C-alpha cells in the first residue's frame, strides 16, 4: 500500500478544486487557504493571510457582524450551514455562496472550514429575472384588469339607465380608472429612470434651494391629499432654513418614495415622522415609521434592483422593488448617502445624508412654480400602488 499524501501534495490537490477554501480558528484567524481563495482577494502569497482576521485585510469590506453570527451558529450547533454573502473587493461587489462547517476534535470545535463559490453576474441576473418578470406581469396585470372590469361595469350599468341614476357609481369608477392608470404610468417611469441610471443618462438640474421648506411642503401636500385614512405625516426640523444645492424634482421623488414605502409597510397606525437635522456637516433627512420593520436578511439587499421581486400574496405591498434602487441612485448623484435602520415589529428609519454645499447659481428658479402646481397629481401617482 502506498504512503499517504504529504502536506504539499494535499495543498496541491486543494488548489485544483474549483472552490475557494479557507480554514480559520475560533479566534477568526486564518490558518490555511487555497490559491483560489487568496487570488480572489488579490493576494499573491497566501501566507500573508495567515494569522489575520477578516477585518484586517486591506481593501476588503466584509459584513463582519454576519461573519461572526454565522461562525457562532456553526460552533454552537456543531453542524454545517449555507448562505449567500456580499463582499466588496477594491470597491467591486462580489456575491458568494458560502458553506461553513465545523472541524471537530473530541467533540470540541477547533475551527471553521469555509467553502466559497462565486455567483457569476449571469447567475445573479438570471435569478433576479425569474422573480422580476413574474412580479412585472403581476404589477401590470392588476391595474389593467381593474380598468377593464370597471369599464365593463360602466357599460353594463349605463346601457339601460340614465347616468343620473348611477352618478355615485360613475364617479367612483372614474377614480378607479384614474388611479390604476397612474399605477401603470408610475411603473413605466420607474423603469425609464432605472434604465437611465444604468446608462448614466439621468439628467439632474442642481440649483440652490431651502431644503427645509421644500421637504416641509412635500409633507404638507401629502397630508392634504385626503386619499388615505389615518395617515399623518409629522414634520419636524432642528433648523429653520438651510440653503443647499439639489435637484428639486429628484428630491421630491426621493421623499415621496420613502413615505410611500413607509405607508405600505405600516400597520393601521399610519404615523410617519420626517425630521431634518444637521450632523457632521451634513444635512440629514429622516423618514421614520412604526410599522412592520424589515428583517436583517432583507436589509442587506434593500437598495438592490428588484430586491422586492419575490412572489407576494399581500396585495397592500405593491411594487417591483425598483423604487428604493432609484432613491439610492438619486441620493448618490447628489454625492449623498442613504442608510436604513430597522427592527421587526418596531418599524424602520431611512436616513438621507446630503452634503452642505451651495453652487454658483445664476439662473432664476421660477421654472419650478409650474411643476409645484402639479404636485397633487404626482403625489397621487407616487402613492398609487398602495391599496386601502
UniProtKB/TrEMBL annotation:
<keyword id="KW-0418">Kinase</keyword>
<dbReference type="InterPro" id="IPR035965">
    <property type="entry name" value="PAS-like_dom_sf"/>
</dbReference>
<keyword id="KW-0597">Phosphoprotein</keyword>
<dbReference type="InterPro" id="IPR003661">
    <property type="entry name" value="HisK_dim/P_dom"/>
</dbReference>
<dbReference type="Pfam" id="PF00512">
    <property type="entry name" value="HisKA"/>
</dbReference>
<dbReference type="InterPro" id="IPR036097">
    <property type="entry name" value="HisK_dim/P_sf"/>
</dbReference>
<keyword id="KW-0902">Two-component regulatory system</keyword>
<dbReference type="InterPro" id="IPR005467">
    <property type="entry name" value="His_kinase_dom"/>
</dbReference>
<dbReference type="Pfam" id="PF02518">
    <property type="entry name" value="HATPase_c"/>
</dbReference>
<protein>
    <recommendedName>
        <fullName>histidine kinase</fullName>
        <ecNumber>2.7.13.3</ecNumber>
    </recommendedName>
</protein>
<dbReference type="InterPro" id="IPR003594">
    <property type="entry name" value="HATPase_dom"/>
</dbReference>
<dbReference type="InterPro" id="IPR004358">
    <property type="entry name" value="Sig_transdc_His_kin-like_C"/>
</dbReference>
<keyword id="KW-0808">Transferase</keyword>
<dbReference type="GO" id="GO:0000155">
    <property type="term" value="F:phosphorelay sensor kinase activity"/>
</dbReference>
<dbReference type="GO" id="GO:0016020">
    <property type="term" value="C:membrane"/>
</dbReference>
<feature type="domain" description="Histidine kinase">
    <location>
        <begin position="135"/>
        <end position="358"/>
    </location>
</feature>
<dbReference type="InterPro" id="IPR036890">
    <property type="entry name" value="HATPase_C_sf"/>
</dbReference>
Amino acid at each position: 500500500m502506498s504512503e499517504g499524501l504529504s502536506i504539499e501534495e494535499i495543498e496541491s490537490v486543494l488548489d485544483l478544486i474549483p472552490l475557494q477554501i479557507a480554514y480559520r480558528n475560533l479566534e477568526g484567524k486564518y490558518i490555511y487557504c487555497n490559491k483560489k481563495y487568496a487570488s480572489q482577494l488579490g493576494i499573491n502569497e497566501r501566507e500573508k493571510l495567515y494569522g489575520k482576521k477578516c477585518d484586517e485585510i486591506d481593501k476588503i469590506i466584509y459584513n463582519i457582524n454576519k461573519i461572526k453570527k454565522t461562525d457562532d451558529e456553526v460552533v454552537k450547533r456543531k453542524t454545517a450551514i449555507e448562505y449567500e454573502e456580499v463582499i466588496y473587493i477594491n470597491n467591486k461587489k462580489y456575491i458568494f455562496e458560502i458553506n461553513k462547517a465545523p472541524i471537530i476534535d473530541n467533540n470540541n470545535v477547533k475551527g471553521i472550514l469555509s467553502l466559497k463559490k462565486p455567483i457569476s453576474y449571469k447567475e445573479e441576473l438570471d435569478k433576479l429575472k425569474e422573480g422580476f418578470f413574474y412580479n412585472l406581469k403581476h404589477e401590470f396585470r392588476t391595474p389593467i384588469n381593474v380598468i377593464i372590469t370597471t369599464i365593463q361595469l360602466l357599460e353594463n350599468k349605463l346601457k339601460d339607465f340614465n347616468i343620473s341614476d348611477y352618478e355615485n357609481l360613475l364617479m367612483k369608477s372614474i377614480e378607479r380608472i384614474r388611479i390604476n392608470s397612474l399605477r401603470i404610468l408610475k411603473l413605466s417611469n420607474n423603469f425609464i429612470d432605472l434604465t437611465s441610471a444604468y446608462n448614466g443618462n439621468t439628467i439632474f438640474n442642481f440649483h440652490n434651494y431651502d431644503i427645509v421648506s421644500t421637504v416641509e411642503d412635500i409633507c404638507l401636500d401629502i397630508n392634504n391629499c385626503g386619499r388615505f385614512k389615518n395617515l399623518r405625516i409629522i414634520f419636524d426640523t432642528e433648523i429653520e432654513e438651510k440653503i443647499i444645492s439639489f435637484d428639486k424634482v429628484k428630491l421630491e421623488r426621493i421623499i415621496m418614495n420613502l413615505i410611500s414605502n413607509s405607508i405600505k409597510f405600516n400597520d393601521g397606525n399610519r404615523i410617519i415622522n420626517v425630521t431634518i437635522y444637521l450632523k457632521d456637516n451634513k444635512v440629514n433627512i429622516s423618514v421614520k415609521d412604526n410599522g412592520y420593520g424589515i428583517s436583517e436578511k432583507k436589509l442587506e439587499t434593500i437598495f438592490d434592483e428588484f430586491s422586492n421581486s419575490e412572489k407576494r400574496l399581500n396585495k397592500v405591498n405593491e411594487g417591483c422593488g425598483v423604487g428604493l434602487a432609484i432613491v439610492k441612485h438619486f441620493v448618490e448623484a447628489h454625492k449623498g448617502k442613504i442608510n436604513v435602520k430597522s427592527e421587526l415589529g418596531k418599524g424602520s428609519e431611512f436616513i438621507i445624508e446630503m452634503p452642505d454645499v451651495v453652487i454658483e447659481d445664476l439662473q432664476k428658479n421660477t421654472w419650478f412654480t409650474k411643476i409645484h402646481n402639479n404636485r397633487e397629481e404626482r403625489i397621487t401617482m407616487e402613492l398609487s400602488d398602495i391599496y386601502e
